[in-house]
Design brief:
The protein is an alpha/beta fold. Helices cover 41% and strands 26% of the residues.
Length: 364
C-alpha cells in the first residue's frame, strides 16, 4: 500500500472518529434529557428509577443482532455497554456492592454487567453485599451463585433465605486463573500458594502436577491472595487478570484452571421488579412437605407446562432438622401465563413459595 493510500485512510478514520464523537455526545445529551423528564414526572414521595435492566438487555441484544462485523458480537456489545454506562452516570451514578476486596472476579462481573462508570463498593463477605442492598446504601449487589466446575455457592443461597432481595439480572464470566508472583518472590523457593478455596479446587490437577508438595492456603478471595504475595518472598497466588494488574504481580503461569470452559455465574440483586423482555429467567425458593413423592410433586407442574428447568439445588431449611428447601431456576417470566399457572399449582402443594425474581438472560 502506497503512502498516499495510507494517508487517505487516515483522513477517513479521522472523519469517522469525529462523527462517532458527535453521535456519542448526542446520546449523552438524550440521557440527560431522559433524567430531566423522569424527575419532572415524579409524584411526591417517589424516587426516580434511572436504571432499567430490561431496557439495557434489549438494547444490547439489538446491537448484537444488527452487528455486521468485522468486530464480533460480544466485542461490539461491550463497547455499547461502556457508552450506556457513561450516559447513565450522567443521569445518576449507580452504586454497586460486590464481594471484595478490589480485584476479585465479582468486581470483574460487576464491571462486565454495569460498565466502568459505576461506583463499585467492595464488601468483605457475601452476606454484607445483601445487607448493603437491603439497607439502601447501594443500588445493586453482585454475588456469585454457581461455578461450572465446583457447583453452587452455598453462602449466596443461604443469604437468599435470610434477606428479601429481588434478582434483577445475571452475568456469566469466563474464569481464567493465573499463578502470580511479586517482585521479591524467589520462584524456586515457593512454599505456599494462596487463593480462594473454589479457585484452589478449580486448579487442583495443575497444582498436583506442578506444585505437589507446596502448601495450599485458602483465603477469603483471590484478590486477598494477590495482596498477601506482595509482601512475601516465598509465596504465590492464584488469581485473575484484574488482581494481577491491580497489585502489580507477574504471571508465572497462565490459564492454569483444569477445565477450559470454567465459568462462574453471578446474580444482580436489588429491590426493583424487572418487566418481561421476552427472553427471561425466573428464580424461586420452594419448601415442600417432608413426605414421599415431594420432589415429584414439585417437578410435575413444570413438566406438564413444558417449562425448561435450568438449575435445581437443595439447602437445609432453617425451620427444622432434616428439612430442605429447593432453589430452582427456569426459563420464562413470572408474568407469563404458563409460568403463573405453574406457580399457582406449586403454591397449593408447597409449605412456602418465594419468587426471588424474573430477569433478562445474560447477554454478555
Amino acid at each position: 500500500m502506497s503512502e498516499q493510500e495510507l494517508q487517505a485512510l487516515r483522513v477517513r478514520i479521522d472523519n469517522l472518529d469525529e462523527r462517532i464523537l458527535e453521535l456519542i455526545s448526542d446520546r449523552a445529551r438524550c440521557a440527560e434529557e431522559v433524567a430531566r423528564v423522569k424527575m419532572k414526572e415524579l409524584k411526591e414521595g417517589e424516587s426516580p428509577v434511572f436504571y432499567r435492566p430490561e431496557r439495557e438487555a434489549q438494547v444490547l441484544k439489538r446491537v448484537m443482532e444488527r452487528n455486521q462485523g468485522p468486530l464480533g458480537n460480544e466485542e461490539m456489545a461491550r463497547l455499547f455497554r461502556e457508552i450506556m454506562s457513561s450516559c447513565l452516570a450522567l443521569e445518576n451514578p449507580l452504586k454497586v456492592a460486590y464481594l471484595g476486596p478490589e480485584g476479585t472476579f465479582s468486581q470483574a462481573a460487576a464491571m462486565k454487567h454495569f460498565g466502568h462508570a459505576v461506583i463499585s463498593v467492595p464488601m468483605a463477605a457475601i452476606d454484607e453485599v445483601f445487607r448493603e442492598v437491603a439497607a439502601g446504601a447501594v443500588n445493586f449487589g453482585v454475588v456469585p451463585v454457581e461455578n461450572s466446575t465446583e457447583g453452587a455457592i452455598n453462602h449466596t443461597l443461604d443469604s437468599f433465605l435470610e434477606h428479601d432481595m429481588v434478582i434483577c439480572g445475571e452475568v456469566e464470566l469466563r474464569i481464567h486463573h493465573h499463578l502470580l508472583v511479586g517482585d521479591t518472590t524467589q520462584t524456586d523457593k515457593i512454599t505456599r500458594i494462596y487463593s480462594h478455596a473454589q479457585s484452589l479446587a478449580q486448579c487442583r490437577k495443575w497444582l498436583d502436577a506442578h506444585y505437589p508438595n507446596v502448601e495450599r492456603v485458602a483465603v477469603s478471595s483471590n484478590a486477598d491472595a494477590a495482596k498477601r504475595v506482595k509482601s512475601e518472598w516465598n509465596s504465590a497466588a492464584i488469581a485473575g487478570d484484574m488482581a494481577a494488574n491491580l497489585y502489580g504481580l507477574t504471571k508465572l503461569a497462565e490459564k492454569i484452571e483444569d477445565r477450559p470452559d470454567n465459568s462462574t455465574r453471578f446474580l444482580i440483586i436489588g429491590s426493583q421488579e424487572v418487566p418481561p423482555t421476552g427472553d427471561d429467567k425466573t428464580s424461586i425458593i420452594v419448601s415442600m412437605r417432608n413426605k414421599p413423592g415431594a420432589l415429584h410433586e414439585l417437578l410435575v407442574p413444570f413438566h406438564n407446562n413444558g417449562i425448561d428447568l435450568t438449575r435445581i439445588e437443595t439447602r437445609p431449611s432453617r425451620s427444622g432438622k432434616w428439612t430442605y428447601v429447593f432453589f430452582i431456576d427456569f426459563v420464562g417470566h413470572h408474568r407469563d401465563p404458563l409460568i403463573k399457572d405453574v406457580l399457582e399449582k406449586l403454591a397449593q402443594e408447597a409449605v412456602a413459595l418465594k419468587v426471588l425474581g424474573s430477569y433478562p438472560k445474560a447477554v454478555l
